[in-house]
Amino acid sequence: MSSTGWIDLQRHASGIETLRAHFEGHAYDPHWHDSYLVGFTEQGVQQFHCRRRRHDSTPGRLFFVEPGELHDGHAPAAGGFTYAMLYLDPAWLQHELRQFGDAPVSSGEPGFRRTLADDPELARQVAAAFSALRMPGWQLAKETHLDAVLRGMLPHLGWHERALGDPRLPRTARLARDYLHAHCEQDIGLETLAAHCGVDRFRLSRAFKAAFGLAPHAYLVQLRLAHARRCLAVGDAPAEVAARFGFADQSHLGRWFRRAYGLTPADYRRRR
């Protein structure tokens, strides 16, 4: 089913992005973000897969997605769905959480205990922060609303070791992922990747997909899209970004970018 709808994205001085969007039918393909996503469904049924489960978010429900977590989006019911969301930069979030003396911080990084939650008070706080960030006003008021969101998030957070060093993942999958992160701008062959991991390409593909839910090539595409998004956010030209990260041309980047984020690279760059 094709998608119809709209996206309203804004970036703010704090580095936080606010997004409000409406989709009918297919919303976006599986992808991930570098940010922590905290949002709520306003209208309709927001259906998506995350953590290898299907989730159905209905009006008033909160959803949480960590950096690197694969997720998609679909509207299963007539009328589609509308949602509002904050994109929180990981470095900013960790710094701000450590300002709370009673926050359960550690040497690792924050993680969400669950993907969906029913917390009407936090949903109101997220909505208030969303509105405050988008309206002219004093910085003190905006920061006060964001502090309320952070305080409300504490019961929903845990702490875990950094993902790239997660010892729970199979060694082959970790080696392959680290190699892809280190060489994402290069034209990497499956045989090269398998040789680096010391296994054949079939065993590598099975281990990688079992660990991350994507084949190595699909993971590399998502990794390149994440890098492209960061470059576009600071004003780099789409054609330059496409060439840097191995896309055939700007149109090739644009097709993948729109499938993942619902916007063209040029449109995202303008909005940022």
TrEMBL record:
Keywords: DNA-binding, Transcription, Transcription regulation
Pfam families from the UniProt entry: AraC_binding, HTH_18
Keyword tRNA-binding: no
Domain HTH araC/xylS-type positions: 174-271
InterPro entries associated with the record: AraC-bd, AraC_XylS_family_regulators, Homeodomain-like_sf, HTH-like, HTH_AraC
Keyword Transcription regulation: yes
Origin: domain of life: Bacteria
Entry protein name: AraC family transcriptional regulator
Organism: Salinicola endophyticus
